[in-house]
Design a protein that fits this description.
Order of helices and strands of chain A: HHHHHHHHEEHHHHHHHHHHHHHHHH
Shape of chain B: flat
Number of strands of chain B: 0
Distance between the termini of chain A: 42 Å
Strand order of the largest sheet of chain A: 1-2
Largest sheet of chain A: 2 strands, antiparallel
Number of helices of chain B: 5
Structural class of chain B: mainly alpha
Strand content of chain B: under 5%
Largest interface: A-B, 70 and 73 residues
Largest sheet of chain B: none
Structural class of chain A: mainly alpha
Radius of gyration of chain A: 22 Å
Strand content of chain A: under 5%
Oligomer: heterodimer
Number of domains of chain A: 1
Number of domains of chain B: 2
Distance between the termini of chain B: 69 Å
């Protein structure tokens, strides 16, 4: 690793990030992110998609800084409501409810919020450093990749995403194949032929991210909220006054190791394709419970139960940028949108970004650190404002979300066809929800589809049609072996452990009061989650709970 | 032996995959297939379609074996109303202008909810329209006519 370049690079980054405009974009981003995080009903994906049009007039650096701010801002906002109201604003903060809300009931909301913020900030700092250290050498390796390596890497990324997603493995792989097909819509770059456009000239450029994402995540979400649940009227905002933000010395001493462990777990899952803040937070909580001297304290206001997951989800968010920025391979739906935003700005994602636009890469990294600091300020002293916002009923929120989405979709190409397509994807997304098919892997495949076809084509052209090229080149073979191992790991225990999972899931669900009870009685379908992290039952249950909560938030 | 669908979610999910796979292959037939070495535009989609059919068939087949939850009922009313609201906006923005189409979108969306109070909705629309015009038309300078008289 070449450390000598680190300092000048960081200097470049900070000089980019602290320009008045970029600070402003960063601030807007984290502010909106906190807002989205606090309000249940809009996830980060829909939020980033909705605000995409706001970035059209910005330069590439400003746009990516703002969108990133939204993404990591949601993690802070989500934890605030989890602690104070027992209502996770984001699926990643579901697990924070368990001990965070208990602490709040005991009158210790202040220290819980403070520890969440301190842990997040620490994890964010470490995450930023990891991106800065790991990014450049990885990009250097990636520059040597040929078409077969890229193809195998993408296969691995997609399978990893399927393995880490919750829900049936087979159905998730089906969604990935479907996503690849959706990605084909448009003009074929090699032959100039229009594919799957059904004669519509508006589809010649392919489907835009905004329309697919907003349909699948925004529109479908609102539909499910309106149709399947009663208006969430009972939000018992904590009546007690939040007094004394400062945690005691003992609190800090208790939570320091939890923050460290959480950060490490978050960094691990964040880097992995398909991993993300939610799975990180759940894993971190499970680990804390395992290593604790007295596990029975968890669920009764243990500060480690707040510190670890909050650190983990934030570390995961930062580390998600590693593969996205260095390889051009997004590792989740939100990252896919970020790449989409970069493409709109005329920047082809990939390892060359770091050498061609160092200001973008390093500016983003430094702004993430600055943004994290802003978030601490935004969230701690202003916590009262955010809690007040929670009293806004959903019937005011969703028409506003609809309006933003419609403008967002339309403004990408100024085409009414795009909005009609968004309706189609919205209804499709609703059907997916009903059939328990995960839309997130579909979006990822949709983004990677054209790249995959192109690299498959090139690889087979070089090898004169010989498919063994993927296993005879060592790096490509390594990716495929890793893919195979991932699959093998998942398939075998999922049969064996089905029963245990159901029990574990019921236990976790029973403990956290915020889930609908009907979930418990249902058949548990192999939520494989991060089982290869070898913490068997706890993990699987965690992934299942995550899924249950996705539907609620 | 009588077959019984034990897991409707999986059964329909499998059928959906099969349907998409069939459509993909059907449409791709018009595109030249090419060879592995020189792939035509039909090569990738036809293979994906075939793979999707296989996956769908397995998912459906398993649904006869493994017990699973029933599908919860669809919310038809919100689905239609939100769809119409979006479509009205898309059509209207060029024909009747940004402000009226946004107003229609907000009112129709709100009507899809469970509680609809006309005064609240009007206030909400005014606030949202003022905000949206400020941010999108004057702020980001999106080039849309405000009203039908432009």
């Amino acid at each position: 690793m070449d450390f000598s370049q680190l300092i000048p690079n960081l200097v470049l980054g900070f000089s980019t990030a602290v320009s008045l405009m970029n600070l402003w974009y960063c601030f807007i981003g984290v502010l909106v992110g906190t807002l989205v995080g606090v309000l249940p009903g809009i996830g980060p994906v829909a939020a980033v998609a909705m605000l995409l049009p706001l970035t059209f007039n910005l330069d590439a650096v400003g746009a990516i800084i703002m969108l990133s701010g939204i993404y990591y801002g949601t993690q802070y906002g989500g934890s605030t409501t989890a602690i104070l109201v027992n209502l996770p604003g984001e699926s990643a903060s579901v697990v924070t409810c368990i001990d965070g809300y208990e602490m709040a009931k005991q009158g210790r909301a202040g220290p819980a919020l403070a520890i969440a913020a301190i842990g997040s900030f620490f994890a964010g700092t470490v995450g930023t450093l990891i991106v800065a250290l790991v990014g450049p050498p990885l990009a250097e390796i990636a520059l040597k990749f040929g078409a077969p390596e890229y193809f195998s890497l993408m296969v691995m990324a997609l399978i990893a995403a399927a393995v880490l997603a919750h829900g049936s493995l087979l159905k998730t792989i089906g969604m990935i194949v479907l996503g690849l097909l959706v990605g084909i819509v448009g003009t074929d770059v090699n032959s100039g032929m229009s594919r799957f456009t059904f004669g519509a000239s508006g589809l010649a450029d392919g489907l835009s991210f905004a329309m697919v994402a907003m349909g699948l995540f925004g529109f479908a979400e609102i539909l499910s909220n309106l149709g399947d649940k009663a208006d969430t009227a009972s939000r018992d905002v904590l009546k007690k006054k939040i007094s004394g933000l400062m945690p005691t010395w003992q609190d800090l001493k208790d939570s320091a190791p939890a923050i460290l462990r959480g950060t490490a777990i978050g960094a691990f899952f964040g880097t992995l394709p398909g991993g993300g803040p939610t799975i990180s937070a759940f894993s971190a909580y499970a680990v804390e419970k395992k290593v604790a001297k007295d596990p029975s304290r968890f669920g009764k206001g243990a500060i480690q139960g707040v510190a670890a997951p909050e650190s983990a989800n934030n570390a995961a968010v930062q580390c998600a940028y590693i593969t996205t920025l260095t390889l051009g391979i997004p590792h989740g739906a939100t990252m896919a949108l970020m790449l989409g935003a970069l493409t709109i700005q005329g920047i082809a994602p990939g390892p060359q970004v770091m050498t061609q636009r160092p200001d973008l890469f390093w500016g983003l990294i430094c702004s993430m650190w600055i943004g994290n600091a802003m978030l601490v300020i935004l969230n701690l002293p202003l916590v009262g404002v955010w809690v007040k916002l929670l009293k806004v009923p959903y019937r005011f929120l969703f028409p506003a979300i609809m309006a933003f989405m419609a403008i967002g979709v339309y403004s990408v190409n100024n085409l009414d066809l795009d909005v009609y397509m968004a309706i189609f994807f919205g209804i499709l997304g609703y059907v997916f929800m009903k059939l328990k098919c995960e839309p997130a892997p579909l979006i990822l495949a949709f983004v990677l589809g054209p790249l995959m076809e192109e690299n498959l084509r090139r690889a087979l052209l070089i090898s004169r049609g010989d498919p063994t090229v993927f296993v005879t080149r060592p790096i490509s073979a390594a990716f495929l072996v890793a893919t195979f191992l991932l699959l093998a790991f998942m398939i075998v225990p999922s049969i064996r452990k089905k029963r245990e999972e159901a029990v574990a899931e019921a236990a976790v669900l029973g403990k956290t009061g915020c889930f609908r009870r009907r979930k418990v009685g249902q058949k548990c379908r192999a939520p494989r989650g991060a089982a290869f992290f070898c913490m068997a039952g706890a993990h699987r249950a965690a992934a299942a709970t995550a899924r249950a909560c996705d539907e609620i938030t | 032996m009588k077959f019984k669908i034990r897991c409707p979610e999986d059964f329909w999910a499998g059928l959906m995959f099969i349907a998409f796979g069939v459509i993909a292959i059907w449409v791709s037939q018009e595109y030249p297939m090419g060879t592995a070495m020189r792939m035509g535009p039909g090569y990738f989609p036809i293979w994906l379609g075939a793979l999707l059919i296989v996956i769908g068939a397995i998912v459906s087949a398993i649904s006869f074996k493994v017990e699973g939850p029933a599908i919860t009922p669809f919310a038809w009313k919100p689905m239609i109303m939100l769809g119409v609201a979006f479509a009205l906006f898309a059509w209207g923005i060029d024909h009747i202008g940004f402000v009226p189409s946004l107003f229609g979108l907000i009112v129709l969306s709100a009507a899809a909810g469970q509680v609809f109070r006309i005064k609240e909705v009007l206030l909400l629309s005014v606030a949202l329209i003022v905000g949206a015009v400020g941010v999108f038309i004057y702020g980001v300078e999106l080039p849309y006519p405000l009203f039908w008289w432009r």
